[in-house]
Design brief:
The protein is α+β, with helices and mostly antiparallel strands and 128 residues long. The chain has helices at residues 5-10, 69-74, 77-85, 107-126; strands spanning 2-4, 24-27, 32-34, 37-46, 49-58, 65-66, 100-102. The strands form 2 sheets. The protein has a 4-stranded mixed sheet with strand order 4-5-1-6. A 3-stranded antiparallel sheet has the order 3-2-7, with no helix packed on it.
């Protein structure tokens, strides 16, 4: 999960800026950037359901937070807690679609898995 630096500072979260806490990520448009740190063991509560999690810091993020697919789907956030995430009374649509993928720490492993998958699919389709 990700949080903007500005929002983390506004909440007075303790930011670990150590170089070891910075990772490379790929944005939705295919560009890459580095996080500037991490905040650890943050209490995140939606609709009374709370979890403790780490948030990677992204400078100039266009939204306050970006929640992970794992979190959203594991806890059925859109199904159970939509009213806490979307303001249906808004006159203008200020929503943003953000896609961010970790690549810095897992990049080579992800590339290998992707290639193995493609090899399996191609080899399977060539069988009679």
């Amino acid at each position: 999960m990700f949080v903007s630096k500005e929002y983390a500072e506004k909440l007075d979260l303790e930011i670990d800026n150590d170089i070891k806490s910075q990772i490379e990520v790929e944005l939705g448009d295919g560009t890459t950037t580095w996080t500037s740190g991490i905040v650890r063991d943050v209490s995140w509560i939606v609709g009374g359901m709370g979890v403790r999690c780490d948030f990677h810091i992204l400078d100039n993020l266009c939204v306050d937070v970006v929640l992970s697919n794992d979190y959203l789907f594991e806890y059925k956030i859109f199904l159970k807690y939509k009213k806490y995430l979307v303001d249906n009374d808004m006159e203008e649509d200020h929503s943003q679609l953000c896609s961010i993928r970790l690549i810095g720490r897992y990049g080579e492993s992800l590339d290998l898995l992707e290639q193995e998958y493609l090899d399996d699919v191609l080899n399977h389709s060539e069988r009679p």
